[in-house]
Amino acid sequence: MDEMTSDQPPKAGTVPHETDPMAAGNADFASYRAMFEDAVIGLYRMDGEGRFFDVNRAFAGLHGCDSAEAFLAHFRDRPHASPTNPDAAAGLVRQMLQFDGVRNVEFEANRADGGRVWIALTGRPVRDAAGELLFFVGTARDVSEARRSAAVLQGRNNVLELMASGALVDQALAALVDGMESAVSALACSIVLRRGGGAAVAAASPSVPRSFVDAVSAAKNPTAHDLWRAVLAGEALLIDDLAGRADLGPPEAAALAAGFHACWAEPIRTQGGDVLGAFVTFRRGSGRPPDSDLELVSTSAHLAAIAVERKRAEDALKLSEARFRDFAEAASDWYWEQDADLRFTYFSERFEQETGIPAATLLGSTRETVRDQSDRPDAAGWREHFETLKSQQSFRDLVYRYAPPDGERRWIRTSGKAIFDENGGFIGYRGVAQDITAEVETREAANATRERFLQAVERMSDGIAFWDADDRFVFCNGEYRRQAGIVADMLQPGVAFEDYLRATLAAGLVPLAETDGEEWVARRLRRHSEPSEAEEQFWDGRWLLIREEQSPDGGTLGIATDVTDLKARETELRETKEAAEAANTAKSAFLATMSHEIRTPMNGILGMASLLLDMDMPDEQKRRVRTIRRSGETLLSLLNDILDLSKIEAGRLELDEIGFDTRQLLADVSSLWDWRAREKGVDFVVKIEHTVPEELIGDQGRIRQILLNLVSNAVKFTEQGQVGLAVSATSEDGDRWLLRFEVSDTGIGIEPDALTRLFDKFTQADVSMTRRYGGTGLGLAICRQLVDLLGGAIGVDSKPGKGSVFWFTLPCRRLGAHPAMSEAAADDFQDRESYRQLRVLVAEDNQINQVVIRAILTRAGHDVDIVEDGARTVEAAAGSDYDLILMDVQMPEMDGPTATRAIRALSGPRSEIPIVALTANAMAGDREKYLAAGMNEYVSKPIDADELNAAIGRAIGSCAPAAVEIGKTSRA
Predict the structure, then answer these.
(1) Helix, strand, or coil here: 839?
(2) What order of strands is seen across the sheet that includes strand 133-142?
(3) CA–CA dist 68, 84 (Å, integer)
(4) Residue 744's beta-bridge partner residues?
(5) At 560, is the secondary structure helix, strand, or coil?
(6) Pick from 260, 305, 261: which is nearest to 169 by CA?
(7) What integer best gives the mean pLDDT of the chain?
(8) Counting beta carbons within 10 angstroms of the beta carbon of residue 897, is it exposed (0 to 12), middle (13 to 18) or buried (19 or more)?
């Protein structure tokens, strides 16, 4: 209802019983009350605050109550509780006071059962003698049906008007559900349409929850639930109590969660009976809805079907129009007409758009007059066309060249149909034409390209052949024919590939390696059907590399390359490689032999020199003996460099990664060279940055070798000033560290042009250095290769006359919670073991070496027995208890490895005696070979007393807890 406003608020008051005509004690009370209660229309009394305090049964029934008492119990003390809009109820009170009553004011009211009802209310105020308001009294009647009918009628009219005005169908459907919800209270309306195998909400009133719309679209299997099964099958469905259903689909569950308890669906069908969807309505109250509501839903479904069917028709019409428009816009053809005299009378607009030629210039002309008269090569075709025209027959795909008066000649393709009048008289031609100039030019260009391609293929040095999808010959070049030899005549278009192979077999041209011709044919057919590549040598000695590939159209491309010369070069290279490998083997054998032959006498020279130095003798004699030992050490250093280089080049150099103490490592290096620096008056300075971890994992031996090489050079080439050894470290990712070593000097420096070749083998910065300082030029080359193997980098910075700084970086790992013993620590442990007096058996056939070894062992406090060959060594080890055996490798009758295996085969504890190999062999792989034979340690000749004692300690210690070996790798 329209809300009325007033500047003065209504006066509240109570009803005095003495003035109430219905109060007890009034003379007319009984009759008045009976009339009030039995009235068929609703009667009420309401106080000044809008509270109902007295109603009859008819009024209570309008609100879903059985009696007045039930109504008052439900709505008492609820001002404006009955109308759904409290503001409208307050406005009703104001209207009654302002206008001294109202008539037929309509409003929507709440019912006790949860539903709603539209009521037409009449009322007036009742006042006392003084004019004070006592109460309001009035009537009420149900106008829901009238409003519903009016709303439905209005909604239907709105839908029809929208459809008639050309509005979008979606707008019409939205108006339909809104009108339906206005007509029937407590409803939520939606239109659900089929979409493929599912459904989707096409329109929904505001009361429909969004969760319901989403559930419809997201339904994975709509037919699994009653509502959507009815929608898709076109069946009417009524569910009077959603809460009582055991299995609800997601859409029904969403409606129930929003407060709707009943549901019904009315099919939406086309006039032909096709099911489009359903008009789905939800009701807040449970139970069957009134028949009038069902009838309204059916009417709305019919209107929805009209709207949707119209939308489908409109969509189909739009699609048809769009398709026709697209065809028209995309077509390059134009239409033409000729009269009975074959003169052009009409051209469509497309003609001028495609050719740029005004159609008016051709009207009245014939095709004969506008064609290019120079187009004589197709004179026979024109004669045939004129015969067709003369006989008044239709024609197709006439191609000719058009010659406009001004402009470029163009190629035209046209087709025409002869036209006759109703009496059979010929009236001309009507047809379609197309400008194919680009097509003709493209074809001509393709033909030219194909010709150039064929010429290029013909000039190729490889044999090229094409076979179609049916394996029949198409084309080949001259080289392929030359390779085919006497069966080249078989290479004719249409010849099957298998027939060509069998002709080759019959002519005896199969490859030399083939013994079964049929098997060769079968194998070639298999290779021909898939990508393949193979080399074959034929009867005349030629080698062919045959490759076959499949083309997109299913054909096969064959490429045959004559590789006879290449195979000859391969044979030559293979022989050269074998000769080089043989030479390398001979070189290795020579180095091994020279190593053994040189180290054996060097062991005697250095050993005897060391023994002499331990004796009392005049200083001059000691100086001369030292000179002998230094000369021997120089020769030994040269031999070791050559052997190291050989190992690196052969990829046999082993890297041992163990834990080591960085400070002890630098102390060991400095202890060997600081006294030599002091002899020259040069300071030797060692610096360790605080960032360097004390214990790291790496190849300590190779790091020491690099440092000794660099330090020895620094001391050698520095006459005054100082030599420095420094190390720093940076952490990369926790346990990984990068060490940087620097060896600096204030010596002679290096010229810039010599820096680039400084690390090359057998190279020194100045050849005069060899005469002055000595050396072979191998030290720095070995340093670079060792650094490369260890994964680092090496370089030098130098200025002539100012000195040099050699540096290298190496990656290392930090030692963990259970560090390995460093080599120095292991040596200390092993040395302690060697201090114990041992009974040692020495197997050595060289008498000088016997003297040297006995002296070294005796000086260390050990008991020594010496035998001269392997057989006696096994006999002695089996008959006596020894703590250690020093085993020479090369001995007469039985060599060291054989003797070791024999000792390991003994029974009892004597088979486990530690054995240390003594050998002049120091080539790559020797150490592994001896250890594999069962030896515990390895010492190369010439024998150094300290190294021998350390090896003895390690061998003895191998029977107890020894150093933890972190890892061992072999770098190629």
Answers:
(1) strand
(2) 52-55, 42-46, 133-142, 116-127, 102-110
(3) 20
(4) 724, 805
(5) strand
(6) 305
(7) 77
(8) buried
Q: Per-residue pLDDT averaged across 687-696, rounded? A: 88
Name which residue leads in pLDDT, 249 or 335. 335
CA contacts within 13 A on the Cβ side of 494 = 0
| Pairing label, strands 683-688, 556-562 | unpaired
Residue 14 has pLDDT above 50, yes or no: no
For 385-411, write each residue's pLDDT tens digit. 888 888 999 999 888 887 776 667 788
Q: What angle do CA 716, 718, 719 make, to 5 degrees?
A: 110
% of the chain surpassing 70 pLDDT: 77
CB 862 within 8 A of CB 892: no
Lowest mean pLDDT among 374-378, 497-501, 892-896: 374-378
Q: What is the pLDDT of residue 822?
A: 43
Give residue 217's pLDDT.
78
Sequence-ordered list of residues with C-beta below 8 angstroms from that of 281, at least 6 positions apart, any chain:
180, 184, 187, 188, 189, 190, 263, 264, 265, 266, 293, 297
- 158 vs 667, residue with greater confidence: 667
Helix (H, G, I), strand (E, B) or coil at 482: helix
The token pair at 765 is: 């910065």
90: its two tokens = 């307050």
Which CB contacts under 8 angstroms, 24+ apart, belong to 683-688?
683/721, 683/722, 683/723, 684/715, 684/722, 684/723, 684/724, 684/725, 685/722, 685/723, 685/724, 685/725, 686/724, 686/725, 686/726, 687/724, 687/725, 687/726, 687/727, 688/662, 688/663, 688/726, 688/727
For the chain, give the number of residues.
Answer: 972
Which residue in the block uniquely carries the two structure tokens 């004390």? Answer: 694
Asked whether residue 195 carries a pLDDT value surpassing 50, the answer given is yes
DSSP 472: B
Provide the pLDDT for residue 71.
86
pLDDT digits (tens, 9 = 90+) for 911-936: 999 999 888 665 656 677 888 888 98
Backbone angles phi, psi at 934, to 5 degrees: 115, 5
The token pair that represents 797 in the structure block: 């910075």
| pLDDT at 723 (0 to 100) | 93
Residue 477 DSSP SS3: coil
DSSP state of 718: -
Cα-based distances in Å from 706 to 713, 715, 781: 11, 14, 10
Note whether 938 and 931 are within 8 A (CB): yes
Report in angstroms the alpha-carbon separations of 167 from 154, 181, 307, 708.
17, 21, 11, 98
Element (H, E) at 634: helix 619-650
Per DSSP, the three-state class of 414 is strand
pLDDT value of position 833: 45
Query: Which range has the worst mean pLDDT, 43-52, 149-158, 199-208, 894-903?
Result: 149-158
What is the pLDDT, as a whole number, of residue 596? 60
Backbone angles phi, psi at 357, to 5 degrees: -105, 125
Give burial (CB, 10 Å; 0-12/13-18/19+) of 638: middle
Token pair of 835, please? 């201090």
| Phi, psi for residue 100 in degrees, rounded to 5 | 55, 40
Rounded to two decimals, what is the model's pTM? 0.34
Tokens 């087709």 appear where? 415
Residue 432: which H helix or E strand, with range? Answer: strand 426-435
Q: What is the dihedral of CA 373, 376, 382, 384, to 10 degrees?
A: 160
Of all helices (H) and strands (E), which one includes residue 428? strand 426-435
Look at the alpha carbons of 845, 848, 849, 854 in this order and tell me if their dihedral is positive or negative: positive
Tokens of 460: 């190729």
* Whole-number Å distance between alpha carbons of 603 and 941: 6
Q: Which two tokens stand for residue 634?
A: 């120089």
Alpha carbons 860 and 302: distance in angstroms, whole number: 120
Which of 81-85, 170-174, 711-715 is the least confident region? Answer: 81-85
Of the listed ranges 222-231, 252-261, 613-622, 785-794, the least confidently predicted one is: 222-231
Here the tokens at position 201 are: 């909400």
**Hey, how many other C-beta atoms are within 10 angstroms of the C-beta on 834?**
25
